[in-house]
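S.,

Sequence below, as promised.
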Amino acid sequence: MALATQQVQDQAGTPRISADRVREILIVDDHPLMCDALALTLKISFGLKNVRTARSLASAQEQIRSQGVPDAVILDLNLPDARGSEGLVTLRRQIPGVPITMISADLENAMISAAMAAGAQGYISKSLGREALVDSLRRMWDGERVTPDSYEPESAGEDDAARVELARRFSSLTPQQMKILRLICQGKANKEISYELSIAEATVKTHITAIMSKINARRRTQAVLLANSVRLFAPT
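The prediction came back faster than expected:
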């Protein structure tokens, strides 16, 4: 598959990282065969000795805390504990300066747009061949934003800036607040959320107030619409 690219720069005006400086990678994917095959490909193609793997978002977060920050991350779109852009938003908060590549079989335009707005360095298909995959990652690590050639980005402007800002707001939520927002998006009432998370209903209400303030929403329905607009929680 051909890929479209766009140069991206950080606030200082220089690429975030260069491919020859990537020495340690974390792959987050719950499919063992896919994860192991990708790790082997990266070790051979880039001469890497340390390719770490994690099967869930929580495992990835714990590994980053215990083993340190990797030079780059390859993140599956749908994990057992995070579906949609939630994993990306969560890791972006924990490792803001690390390039994160989303990898998925889902090439829906809206999903790619949401991931890129949430801070992905690139978005690639799981069906890519070895050479295309390696080339895509090399260019991402050299500072390009890489998306599938079939992707049709919406025209840049106020809407694009709004999506980026909204993703930034969601990244300010604590892990507990993100769990509560996910349950709100599932239509759960406060009492149900309280039972599921084993916390007091008053605590749920306090968290919801904080969530609404952070994402600038006045009602639960508005919070759900905002979460859906950036594909924060992909449907199961």
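The mean pLDDT is 86.

Coffee later?
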